[in-house]
Amino acid sequence: MKITKLLLGAVTIVCTIGQVQAQGPDVELLEEYASPGVRNMGKSRGIVLSYERLPQFDIDSESKDPRIESGSGHVRRNNKFEARVYAPLVNRPQTKVIFGLDYGMEEFNFENVSPASYPLYNYLEDKNLQSLGTQLAYLRSIDSRRFYLLRVKGEINGDWGKDNASHDLIDYLKSTFEAGYGWKKSPNYVIGVGFQVGYTFGRKSIYPAVIYNRTFNDNWGVEAIFPANTRVRYNVNEKTLLYTGYKIDGASYNLFVDEGPLSEFKEIELRRTDFKGFLRLEREIYDFLWFSLEGGFRQYYRNRVFDEIGSQDEILKNDLAGAGYVRVELYAVPPRRFMEKKK
Q1: pTM for the whole thing?
Q2: CA 91, CA 13: separation in Å to the nearest integer?
């Protein structure tokens, strides 16, 4: 009963520069006020559980500091688990405020390491990289043609946990801000511009964004926030969607090392940027419950370790081989009876 109540109150529209989703087939019923959604987009998500795995790829680490040697190894597997919850604080036709909470964990398992017990690989295998974040998204419809959206997010990213209890969580804090302004040309066509101050390319910087959501007919459409991600959508039917496209994913982790050669730096930062090309299937299981299966190729664009948090001085340059990946998700959407009541 508690789960059902949570789903009934789950977000009916989630709008961010990083990922814009809307009410799908019901969006044409809300022409009184503009939104980023277009006809036939997938339904908004209230609760999401996901697991991603990359098996078998090589890694080479080139030292940029004489206190650390270079090394190499083989990543037997790289696993990532994520859980996200979105809920509306304000859900009015013209104004929507969405609260989000998410947790992520990434782990590495190495083999064939040279030299043996290489400091970086040994540390990453023993300490999972974690992320705990909260966000607030605000969508305001100016009229039937124009809207703007804002999102602010705070995350604690790094090796925090019981082994690093001596450090305050504030030491791991990362913040992101996104903003966008859009025009709804028709129920099938939305275009907009915006920017993000975040970590898409590892280091915190300002990145531009162009929103382009368009449905061409009953089957085909495009959903894009260029250059971060673009995907082509094919609606098989109202219960099955297919996607193909690419996405850029970046992160920054604060690491507080207290042993081995890396402990000389005490506070280091690992920054990464990945490029993914993918195929994705989304399918309804039952009413409010959906699953997705995604597979593709993940290429690391940049992976670096810096001598201090926020520094520009590299101490390690990591070269990670590209690898195939698979990702599965289970997620909840607003139940049909809830959407029917809105009509």
Answers
A1: 0.85
A2: 9
